[in-house]
Amino acid sequence: MKVKAIALFSGGLDSILATKIILDQGIDVQGVAFQTPFFSAQKAIIAADTIGLPLLIQDITEEHLFMLKAPRYGYGKNMNPCIDCHTLMLKLAGQLMVKMNADFIFTGEVLDQRPMSQVRQSLHVVAKNSGYMEFIVRPLSAKLLPETKPEKDGKVNRDKLLDLRGRGRKRQLELARFYGLQSFPPPAGGCLLTDPAFSRRLKDLLKHQKDPLVRDIELLKFGRHFRINETTKIIVGRNNFDNIAIEKLQKEGDVIIRPTEIPGPTVLLPDGGDEKMLHIAAGICVLYSDAPENEAASVECKDAEKNTLLTIKSILRDDIEGWIIR
Length: 326
Prior knowledge:
By secondary structure, this protein is α/β, with parallel strands linked by helices. 36% of the residues lie in helices and 16% in strands. It folds into two domains: 4-192, Rossmann fold; 195-323, no CATH class. The chain is elongated and about 75 Å long. The N and C termini lie far apart (57 Å).
């Protein structure tokens, strides 16, 4: 029977090259890409289409959120649990390998390319904790790593694998030219958990909500965020793009606030609030509107049941400083 492999495929240059190297050995390859609110599979979709790789997209939000709340190996510089995240992905890829009766899994990881997740010890820990250690091949650095079962069994030819190491990209670029790859995405970026501002917002959310909804995480991507107290947060659109996104993410029980006569932001009061919170949100709405300073403005407060009109002055900037989640 023909050998079959599962590619953990991000769509970056390294994963494309790893796939090309395995395909060159006459092995059937099925790609898999994962997505959550923190990273998408869009780059993988584009790259897979470019090289003709069949690709499965799996949403792993539930499993990822469970892991994210208390990662065994902690976080990186921000809220990125890279070691635990890679372990989860390889575990799920391994399950797919078994389901599809494939022979091994492979990734585009390069030894010592990333200081937290791709040093020798981390690669070992990730593979071991995934439960599929002996079936994980890393074609770009395989000659620098222990021989795996697929290599020992002759399913993949170790002599045709590589010995790449470190952060340099010279050999990858040479391989890209060899394979005629005209364009490919930059190596960094793509995961919001590495972004400092997003991480601060996420940390605040997880502190105040035990089981946040996916839409609560999506809201972290838009607007200005204000933590008023343990149960109340206010989100203010910075531009029309934010305003539209925030409004689309409204759910039953939320209050949307907008100026009625002047340009201004869309403000979201998730899960509503008492009269005091409503007035604070309305005052913040006026503050970021085009209302003249110290003059009252009319705002509409809308929930699923009713619309309320308030005429209110802007809240003072000094009063909101302690609420801003920067």
